[in-house]
Specification:
Elements lengths: L1 H26 L11 E3 L5 E3 L15 H9 L21 H7 L4 H14 L3 E9 L4 E8 L5 E4 L6 E2 L7 E9 L2 E10 L4
Antiparallel strand pairs: 1-2, 3-4, 3-7, 4-5, 5-6, 7-8
């Protein structure tokens, strides 16, 4: 009985998500070109909302946000697909699966870094968008108390602050725990 209710809730949510997606696409024809990610398949083949793959994590061994960035950047990176793309074969690995494998793609690194930064009570988001060079990319953004963003490259551990030249051109979607926010107008590079 409880299993049936859960399946019904999931079915209704999927219906609502499809309706929302169609409304989002109807707003502007260019929305179909955006790198918006709502669902992904995990390493077990289960469909997951991408925002549910981020969760605040704390570790007594990681003392600061900079230490978290350094820790994540030391995990080997493998890339098997275009980040944030609409490929049907794309998978995002769970935090547990990523840590056990001690290897993962850009998305896995960003999910872990964002989760660790959330554990430090930082307003943190995984961003999907494009680089200045035009390729798709995924990175982490934190918002300071005044709303000024910092951008974190989870692969290198580098942090970009106001005044730095950014390697990012657009943000198509930001996601955090239980929330995925597609941009109505893609955010373009405004920090120089």
């Amino acid at each position: 009985m409880e299993h049936d209710r859960k399946l019904e809730r999931e079915r209704l949510f999927l219906m609502y998500s499809k309706q929302w997606w169609n409304e989002y696409l109807a707003l502007r024809p260019t929305h179909a070109e955006r790198l918006v990610k709502i669902f992904t398949e995990d390493e077990l083949g289960s469909t997951q909302m991408v925002c549910m793959m981020v969760a605040p994590l704390q570790s007594p061994l990681i003392e600061s946000a900079r230490h978290a960035a350094r820790f994540v950047s030391q995990i080997p990176c493998s890339q098997s697909h275009a980040p944030g793309g609409n490929s049907t074969s794309e998978q995002w690995t769970s935090l547990h699966g990523f840590l056990v494998a001690n290897n993962g793609d850009v998305e896995s690194h960003c999910l872990l870094l964002c989760s660790l930064l959330l554990g430090f009570s930082l307003d943190s988001y995984v961003c999907v968008g494009s680089r200045v060079k035009g390729s798709t990319h995924v990175w982490v953004m934190t918002l300071g108390e005044t709303g000024v963003p910092s951008f974190w490259d989870a692969i290198t551990g580098q942090r970009y602050v106001n005044g730095d030249t950014l390697p990012y051109k657009t943000i198509d979607v930001c996601l955090t725990t239980r929330l995925s926010m597609p941009m109505l107008n893609p955010l373009t590079q405004s920090l120089k």
